[in-house]
Amino acid sequence: MSTFNTIGIMGRASDAVGETLKVLTQFLAARNVDVILGDDVAPLMPDSELSVSPRNKIGAACDMIIVLGGDGSLLGAARTLAHHSVPVLGINRGRLGFLTDVMPDEMEEKVGAVLDGEYQIEKRFLLTACLMRAGEKVDKAEALNDVVVNSGTSAQMIEFDLFIDDEFVYHQRSDGLIISTPTGSTAYSLSGGGPIMHPTLDAVVLVPMFPHTLSSRPIVVDGNSEVKIIIRDSNEIHPPISCDGQEHLTAQPGDTVVIRKKRHKLSLIHPPNTSFYESCRGKLGWSTRLGD
What we know:
By secondary structure, the chain is of the alpha+beta class. The protein has helices spanning 15-30, 58-61, 71-81, 107-115, 188-191, 276-284; strands at 6-11, 34-38, 51-53, 64-69, 88-92, 120-133, 136-143, 146-150, 158-164, 167-174, 176-180, 203-209, 219-222, 227-231, 240-243, 247-250, 256-270. It has two domains: 6-119 and 271-284, Rossmann fold, CATH 3.40.50; 126-263, Probable inorganic polyphosphate/atp-NAD kinase, domain 2 (Tumour Suppressor Smad4, Sandwich), CATH 2.60.200.30. A hairpin with a 2-residue loop joins strand 6 (120-133) and strand 7 (136-143). The chain starts with 5 loop residues before the first strand and ends in an 8-residue tail after the last helix.
């Protein structure tokens, strides 16, 4: 008997998601599962009699959340759902889909297996970025993939000092710095030359963005480390701080950005026989040969 008796559905409203949503709700109804729609996807089914919940409350009312969309949709849901400890399953209606690893044409098979108790759960940690000014916290945001401190313009670099666990690491002049979780190592960090990290690692990677030196390379540190970036007073710009490319803070010269692991983790559900390395082969083209 399934332990998932009430399932919430979230996502990004689009025609593709709407088609999948109708099939999914019919399938879950046939399995005698109660369904709650998030208010982000409810407009796709205007005549439905299903319950609707705000996205910031749906996690408390459900045994599992299914996210319809791409990885961006799941990133947004993760920041909302992590503190509810509700497991999340992603159905891919986007592009690569490292997080939303169920394809629409296998949805009924894979979701059915999960309802039958055949699944794996991975715990993924998030990062919290706090913006400090004159010793006071003025803003904060969270990220499942990465926190990016950058100049906000291709025409100008920023200068900053990096500390890890209060130990000075270096002064740098560059386009910025990517602070990535293992989950985010296949995203922006990878494009910046960072390593691919297995998602179960308890580590954080710091990837410089076009540093004004040939010797600066990515650094992998313990996941419990405190990363501190001090924006130099000499900067003439107000560097943006981006969390998952979706939440944005704005720093001033002299500000400090403190990044730590968030206490609550995301519980990510994978159907049976899901492999991270297989995902990399398929999505990154590791096994592709010229001419294939």
